[in-house]
Amino acid sequence: MEKSFRYIYGPVPSWRLGASLGIDLLSREEKICSFDCLYCQLGHTDIHTTDRGIFVTSEALLEEVAELPPELQIDFITFSGRGEPTLAANLGKVIEAIKRLRREPVAILTNASLVDREEVRTELAHADLVVAKLDACSGELLRAINRPAAGITCEAILDGLISFRRQYGGRLAIQIMFVDENREFAAELARLARQIGADEVQVNTPLRPGGKRPLDRIDIAGVVNCFRELPVRCVYEQPRKDVMPISPGETLRRRGKG
Ligand code: SF4
């Protein structure tokens, strides 16, 4: 009988990560996030919080990792899922354990809202690739696009990313979702990406069905032009791999984040 996974999903074909096996340390019916982004594929945030907690025990997650099929071919093991992965207080511990069990590189897709906390930076630093969201260059834009939980500020996110860059030897990518609200701020966002010292910038727009209209290819070409001094990947220009998920139901529930 086919093994069913509860906390692991995919692999999904990711334009940024190739064949990406997802790990969801939140794994609740409710979406748990410190943001409630206008364009979120997962719908409205049910639990809007900055409180970290244990949602899936490390033991339960690692049992699933040990049961992955030996023939599985993936490019990344990616922490993402139904919400913000840094809200899982066992994130660092689980990454360390997975790195002892598997040889694939580990990535985290984070909204960077908790990166001003030292313990979160230390945990993120266990990953080989951190993809940090930065859609806003002001508090006003942050509130308009990302609708953060109380206490999150644009300044704290920027300071946190700059501190993280100083301590982190892995690859740091800044991902920016461009929508009508921030398209005029591309040059300022490029300046911030350079100030942070990002290794690459991922220019995205909401192409999957959701609450926001994507920018078209011409608009995105204009945006990309602002980032020309940085290594840029653009959602319109990346090929996707053909991959078959090991757990189709669990994959579908979370596919919005791929
Ligand atoms: S896009 Fe990501 S950060 Fe934004 S609400 Fe959805 S899960 Fe949270």
Q: Which terms summarize this structure?
A:
18% strand; 8 helices; 258 residues; binds iron/sulfur cluster; 29% helix; two-stranded parallel ribbon; globular; eight-stranded mixed sheet; TIM Barrel; alpha/beta
Could you walk me through the main structural features you see in this protein, from its secondary elements to its overall organization?
The protein has 258 residues and is of the alpha/beta class. The protein has one domain (8-238, 246-257): Aldolase class I (TIM Barrel, Alpha-Beta Barrel). The chain contains 8 helices and 10 strands. It has helices spanning 58-66, 91-101, 118-124, 139-145, 154-167, 186-196, 217-226, 248-254, and strands at 8-14, 18-23, 32-33, 47-48, 76-79, 106-110, 129-133, 171-177, 200-204, 232-234. Strand 5 (76-79), helix 2 and strand 6 form a beta-alpha-beta unit. The longest helix is centred in the middle third of the chain and has 14 residues, at 154-167. It is globular, with a radius of gyration of 17 Å. The chain starts with 7 loop residues before the first strand and ends with a helix. The model has no long low-confidence stretch (mean pLDDT 93). The protein binds iron/sulfur cluster. Iron/sulfur cluster is lined by residues 33, 35-37, 40, 42, 45, 83-84, 111.
Low-confidence stretches: none
Number of strands: 10
Rounded mean pLDDT is 93
Rg value: 17 Å
| Class inferred from helices and paired strands | alpha/beta
Strand order of the largest sheet: 1-2-5-6-7-8-9-10
Return the string of H and E elements. Answer: EEEEHEHEHEHHEHEHEH
